[in-house]
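Entry 14. Structure prediction run on the chain below.
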Amino acid sequence: MKKIFFSIFVLAAFLFACKKDNNDSRKSVKLNEVFSLKVNQTAELESDGMRITLLEITEDSRCPTNTNCFWQGRVIAEFKVEKSGETLIKILTDNPENDPMLSTSFTAFGHLVKLEEVTPYPDGNPIAQKDYVVKIEIE
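Output returned:
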């Protein structure tokens, strides 16, 4: 009986150790398709191997739902873009109106990367980095 329990324990430990963390997984994406990334998740472009990783949400000052704000706020996301051994750090925002240094898109390695959406939308409660999902498109 002890051998059976030990075997089940070892099997469960092995399966748990082999489980992938979806946040750190790399996914394959195509040009001109909107896709989602979580913090520390990487997408690789099928056509030429360019990789993009969402590093973090560095600012989220968007006006929470059911609140009146004098400024609509913004969200700022930091990305790492890599290709052929070269690495770029890029920033995107959903609201570049008050800062001419920010944009909803950037160019890297001959591709245009566009920010489509950042969720969840603030509701007044803190949002953990692991809960953010950014939708982008690469052209």
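The chain has one helix and nine strands.
Filed with the rest of this week's runs.
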